[in-house]
Amino acid sequence: MKKMRRSAIKAANKELERIDVFFNTYANMSSGLIDPEGIERLCSDVEVDHTDVRILMLAWKMKAEKQGYFTLEEWRTGFKAIRVSNKYALKKALPELEKEVRRPTNFVDFYSYSFRYCLTEEKQKSIDIDSICELLNIVLRSQYQAQVDLFVQYLKTQNDYKVINMDQWMGFYRFCEEISFPDLSNYDPELAWPLILDNFVEWLREKQTQS
Amino acid sequence: MRHSFIEWDEGWNFIQRRMNKLNRVIEGLSETPFDAEDFMMLYTTIYNMCTQPPPHDYCQQLYDKYKETIEQHITLKRLPSLTEKHEEFMLQEFVKSWERHKVRVRRMSHCFFFLARHFIPSRSLTNLEEVGLNCFRELNLRARVAAFSLIDREREGERIDRGLLKNVMGIIVEIGTEKMDAYKEDIEAHLLKSSGEYYSRKALSWIAEESYMDYMVKAELCLRRERNIVSHYLHSSSEKKLVEKVEHELFEPLANAFKQKVSLEVKALVQQAKDDASSNQDFNGAYGMQEHVLVRNLLELHTKYLAFFSDCLIKNYIFHRALRDSFDLFWNGPVAGSLGAELLAAFCDTLLKNDGNEKLSDEAAEDTLEKVAKLVSYMSSKDLFIEFYKKRLIPRLLFDRSSNLEREKSFVTNLKQKLGGTFLTSRIDKMVEDMTWTQDNKTSFLEYLHSNPNVNPGLDFTVTVLTTGLWPSYKPFNLNLPAEMKTCVEAFEGFYETKTKCRKLNWINSLGTCYINSNFESKTIELVVSSCQAALLLLFSDADRLSYSEIFTQLNLDHDDLVQTLYSLSYGKYKILLKEPNTKNISPNDSFEFNSKFTGRMKRIKIPHLPLYETKEVIKEVEKDRRYAIDAAITRIMKKQKVLDLQQLFVECVEKLGHIFKPDIKTLKQRIENLIDRDYLERDKENHNIFKYLV
């Protein structure tokens, strides 16, 4: 028994070591962090684009705080959880990770995380329209293509909003989840939908009557 | 041992026989009384049947059968005997039945008393007496039909047996539990409904046939009668509900008809004014004769219908709302209410200005302004009116254009009363107060000059002291005052020091007005100009011709301001200065000469400066103020309530802000989102319609 436990601990330690080694292959030696350049290398090693949603999912798994950077601590958290310690294993694990994130219970968390992840400045609370559109395309388009495409189109034509905040961001997800589309039959403007969605719906209805 | 058990059939048959006897006795059909022995036999049998060991204990069956027996008696005996009678007779039968029913239930519950010892309490069942009395509810439907038909007959003027109805209602109250559910469900709810229908039919025919006046008289009578009905035979808790229902049914259609009528009149007046305005098809805030006539006509209309209410004894909010809504067409504008507010403020200006086109006696002006104040109190965008009013008040006060300070004061006081609260009026109130201070101190300043001849500049002049913060922030022109004006300033500063302590005067030269006698070749004309214009003109009393740079160094004005001032004197209607060369723009190389050949028909000439205001700017200002007001209202409400959904929050906001303006839901949502951004509120994670206050 003792032996077994000891060997288990040993194996775990070894695993940790391997994760650290894996980290060091991408880390910037002077800062001790993986910086955007390191991430770029990681992406090419596992053959995904750095704007691929799976990289964002990986960041979510690591609970990474700062966009474009991974700390050793975050790296350990993430890779211990998905039991990966080298690039081949990572490449194999990515589809599984995506499946996990797409589970509804995880997805809301991931969705709100992806917004927070884009807040790069201190006290920044909102994100400009262009970045939001990009983020929507990465995060939500595969699930709600029609809604995302139209919303992006709307965001780019309107003039009332220059930035989007967390409340509006989450509101749009709820909109995709709850509102029957494209007929919008259960959209009730009397409810406290963020105003931007009221305007979006108005814009949609106008568009529909025109065509 | 087996034989000592009482089987169900056997026991129940026995009980039933005895009960039949009891029934006959109560109905007065039996010769032999239901005596102690009968009672004992019955009680003992029930006792035995309840205390036998299972499966022979029959508590539940007996409890059920007890109820069933009473129910059967009601449906088989009582109901038919009611059905064969009508109206009063039925109700009399109802009352009689109830008396017997009470006796029957009381005696039966005695016989079954053993159930109440253990069985009922242990199962928390309804007690025997209540079960029994409740069965009588079965008959309420019949009683209701008869009672309502009596009530309708009374409404049509017949005399009915009120005592009987009172008894019936009393019984129905008694049948139910303490919450009077039987009365509320079986009578009240239906009564409200049928009364509503009755009066809505009445309203329909009266609207078609009667004049408003007769309608109101009839409606008042109906209301009084309904109150009577309640006091004579209904339960007192119904009064408020019934009266409200009847009021609603009677007044709502009238109010609608009324609103339609007044709206049409308003519409006709607006249309007429539009037709009269030959040049512009739509009103744009410019104030001309047709606008003036329109406002005056609308005021008369409003006053007429207000008086109509008081004559008809009605202070009913339904009508006030109808009157308010019927003026909607007038209020409308780029922002809800802005056009009416602007025109009304302009109308006030004509009454309060010294050169307004209305020359009214004090009394007539007072009277008209009173009407205005009343109309304003009916507006939903009072803040807009006040803002436009202020914009016109300022030049009246500052440029001495107000005809009468007392009239200004009394109108502001009147507004303050009508609008309830000082929130909107406090600024204009204090502005007028500043003027009062100036006026009050005029004589003491003259006395001061008289007793200090060394500082007396020998010019006629007054100074208006404005409180900082109340007035718009004016540009304090950088201006070298001419010596004459400088002595005036110093004299006043000396005087002001004797009046107050630790207060500094900032001189706003841009607002000054000077009267200058200018000797032109043909005649002397009094020029009314601003301080800057005056200072510039005074330079020419020593020199006939001055270059731009000379003027610039002597006056020490900013380039832009100087150009503007020169422009006002050398272009436009009154060319007091001649520019060399005579081109369209003023450049630093130009020189100017006093136009001694200038002449005109008038003895006094006003040289215009400041524009009045921009409508769009005013609306923008008001919208900004509204945002602050909504933010403050939301935080105050949420601080108290902590958690509210959007609709509740909206209702509370409307309640809080209604006396200033009516917030719309879109703006409210926008402000909520802004407050979320600023971490005052958060959206509930589960229910996104609910907001929470963050401390």
Instruction: Tell me, briefly, the overall form of chain B.
Output: elongated
| Content-based structural category of chain B | mainly alpha
In the CATH hierarchy, what is the superfamily of the domain at 260-423 in chain B? Cullin Repeats
Strand % of chain A is under 5%
The third-level CATH topology of the largest domain in chain A is Recoverin, domain 1
CATH hierarchy, class of the domain at 260-423 in chain B: Mainly Alpha
Please, what is the CATH homologous superfamily of the largest domain in chain A? Cullin, PONY binding domain
State the low-pLDDT regions of chain A, or none.
Answer: none
Tell me the β content of chain B.
5-15%
Annotation, overall tally of beta strands of chain A: 2
Low-confidence stretches of chain B: none
Largest protein interface, residues of each chain: A-B, 14 and 16 residues
User: What is the C-alpha radius of gyration of chain A, as a whole number of Å?
Assistant: 21 Å
Description:
The complex is a heterodimer of chains A (211) and B (695). Chain A contains ten helices and two strands. With 211 residues, chain A is mainly alpha-helical. The radius of gyration of chain A is 21 Å and the shape is elongated. The mean pLDDT of chain A is 86. With 695 residues, chain B is mainly alpha-helical. In chain B, α4 runs antiparallel to α7 (128-134) and α13 packs across α17. The relative contact order of chain B is 0.04. The mean pLDDT of chain B is 82. The interface between A and B is medium-sized, with 14 and 16 residues.
